[in-house]
Amino acid sequence: MSPRFGKKKQKSSSDETPEEQVTPEIAATHESSEESPGPDPADLPHDDVTATEEVTATATEGVTATATDEVTATATATDESPAAPPEPAAAEEEPAKGWFGLADPAETPPAETPTSRSAARRAVEQPVEPPVERVPEPVPTPSTPEEAIRALADGRHQQPHDLLGHHLDEEGLLVRTYKPFASSVGVRFQDGERIELLHESDGVWGGMRVGATQTQDYRLLVAYADGIEHEMDDPYRFAPTLGPIDLHLIGEGRHEELWTVLGAHVREYPGPMGTVVGTSFAVWAPRAQAVHVAGDFNGWDTRSHSMRLLGESGVWELFVPGVGDGTLYKFLVRGADGKVREKADPMAQATELPPGRASSVVQSRYSWSDDAWMEQRAGNDAHKQPMSVYEVHLGSWRSGHGYRDLAEHLVNYVADLGFTHVEFMPVMEHPYPPSWGYHVTSYYAPSARFGRPDDFRYLVDRLHQAGIGVILDWVPGHFATDPWALARFDGLPLYEHADPRKGWHPEWGSYIFDFGRMQVRNFLVANAVYWMEEFHVDGLRVDGVASMLYLDYARKDGEWVPNIHGGRENLEAVGLLQEANATAYKRVPGIVTIAEESTSWPGVTKPTDSGGLGFGLKWNMGWMNDSLKYLKEDPIHRQYHHHLLTFSLMYAYSENYLLPISHDEVVHGKGSLLRKAPGSRYDQLATVRAFLAYIWSHPGKQLIFMGSEFAQEAEWADGRQLDWWLLDHAAHYRVHNLVKELNRVYRENPALWALDSDPAGFEWLNADDNAWNTYSYLRFGTPDRQGAVVAVAVNFGGLARDPLRIGVPRPGDWKVILDTSGYDEFGTPSQAEVVVTAQEHGANGQPWSVEVRVAALSAVYLAPVDTDRKALADE
């Protein structure tokens, strides 16, 4: 688990909004109810016929969203109450201002209509509550053009397409546009005819093409103070880019490809006046009163691009012609409390370079070259393949390296060492580098610190071409509190749980997702699939699973809420994890999901249909703690702690395990792996070499953090690169060589990985040799034990075992395939390749035995000579 950052402040109450039933109805129209049947769908550039038909079908009746009564759950803080999330800074609560200095009229009431009058009467009759505690009635489509224009100018119109764009009625074709700084506005139609628009009020221009009987493609001709006429397209003449099926799935929280419909997407629409290229913007903000999109495409004007609410889905949408790849943007969300906040797009697939906060439009043009890898992956079971993982923090592996640089240097380095996978600490965008990426603000965007999304694709592609899998750290348990990101997105808790006892993490200073809200769950499940499908990622390591599973995690008595059964298990988080795992394994064959889970929760790697969480692997945190504790003991004292390395075999097959020596174990005063070992520098290096060989031979996959492969002296610091200069020293370069040899031997000997999760793959030879601090055991590659086999002896004592008799299950010649004592800086002769003949002298419960020298603080592997290990591995 990584450190978390954030301040805590007491808060008197919190809000909780129950889920609402939504219907997949599109509210946007090109026509008011008093006007004619609407535009011909054939004249609307659109790539979804169904959505176009929906617009036509609803064109005769303006549909508006209605606010449902909401129940507010309030938790009063006392001296013993849990720490509450920090209030947003006062500056963030100020009404947003436009590029031209237009203040947001936050105190201006919505345009009065019959619907809003009835809402006002109800509000007077009911008890007065603080604004933040109540969801105000949304502003419906005003009944008169004057009211509609005023609502639009005030930034409160939920259906701007009802006012703007083109509208066919009995008199002809009416065109309206919002150009508050224009000196003149005209319209040129596809047939060449031109009309001039008149300024109606508040920046809205309108004009009628009298006698028109059908809609036409057109362009706006706008002149400003410079007197130059600019031709531009009209965002309000386009149909919605989301169809009814998309909205229905979003409403149910079941859209597995959510990233394809929400966020920003470059689209092309053919039309009579030429192909239109632009970007569709869509965001889920169900309790917002209004949403605008602003960016460098409109000078960050907070009024010019008002979005429409699509029925009761909570989705706001707008297609903006002329906006393309690289454009920066933000959403201006008028929350349920009436205040306007600048927000990054939760579904943004790229961001501005931090500390900038804007989202970025991105259009991938990447062409993959990893077809062979992807085909092989889909046909393999990753859990039964060799897995030797190199964990990497991108920012500190080598300073100044971006995705493209890493695609050369990191790929070559890892391939040379022979690791099967790399695991990247979170690449999702985050504002604070010392959080290491575990406080995420943009879950769908690779960090812009290292390049664009296609650059990250290139890195993954190059790794795959080199035969290396890619695992990403994923953080679905909590998120950053930055007020410009997910926090209180529509003015109330939305992505976070409203009750701080379930929505605030007192230990890490972060918000906890509302796992019970279906759309939030959909956001996370789709995000897991997104990285695997869009970036060809081979697996996810889920961070902080224990913090998700328990309602009382890091909380005292009275600071948490029991589940419906009175227990401490977070049933909603369990449901999320099960759904994420089941969906990922269903959609992307050959991937693996890994849980960082530090408790004894049963069935972490059990299938979901059997009641398990559905992970493929679980980090073996118990083994990690015990083995590092043992490592710190002086050899003369290790005999009294012998059980620390034997106990793991008591539960090694209760789950499918991965053995981690991760970043968390070499930081914050814990010291590097080298400095955990006692004794002289020679003894420390020898201990590290023996320990690495022990890890590679223990049941379970293995992971080490960068720098451990050459025994870095200093503990890891995220602000500087690894101490690469150590490779100029023989002592450290030889550890590097050993890791390379370990990975070669590991890959070629299926006995070391084929039965990692099967008790038939392991047998102790001598687990009780504590007087000599020695451990010996057998690893098997097949359940019948007739295939590949490796004998292992590890000596953590200060004296050599010369000779050590080891029992073996077969007669004939056995070869030493690894001897860590031969990897010191002095060129000590290695026993590798030495062949010994098994004697008909039983030992350790085996019918035959061999004698071999095991130096102090070293490990030895032996395998039968007649075994074609490479052929077995290939098989």
Task: Fill in the keyword field for this structure.
single chain; 8-stranded parallel barrel; 875 residues; alpha+beta
Present the secondary structure layout:
Elements: H1 49-57, H2 90-93, H3 114-125, H4 145-153, H5 160-163, E1 165-168, E2 172-178, E3 184-189, E4 194-201, E5 204-210, E6 218-223, E7 229-232, H6 244-252, E8 263-269, E9 276-284, E10 290-295, E11 308-309, E12 315-321, E13 328-334, E14 340-343, E15 359-360, H7 371-379, E16 388-392, H8 394-397, H9 403-417, E17 421-424, E18 428-429, E19 442-446, H10 453-465, E20 469-474, E21 478-479, H11 500-503, E22 504-505, E23 510-512, H12 518-534, E24 539-542, H13 545-549, H14 571-587, E25 592-595, E26 617-619, H15 621-631, H16 643-646, E27 657-661, H17 673-676, H18 681-697, E28 701-705, H19 730-748, E29 762-769, E30 774-780, E31 789-795, E32 801-808, E33 813-819, E34 835-837, E35 848-854, E36 858-864, H20 869-874
Parallel strand pairs: 16-17, 16-28, 17-20, 20-24, 24-25, 25-26, 26-27, 27-28
Antiparallel strand pairs: 1-2, 2-5, 3-4, 3-6, 4-5, 6-7, 8-9, 9-12, 10-13, 11-12, 13-14, 13-15, 18-19, 21-23, 22-23, 29-30, 30-31, 31-36, 32-35, 33-34, 33-36
Helix pairs in contact: 9-10, 12-14, 18-19
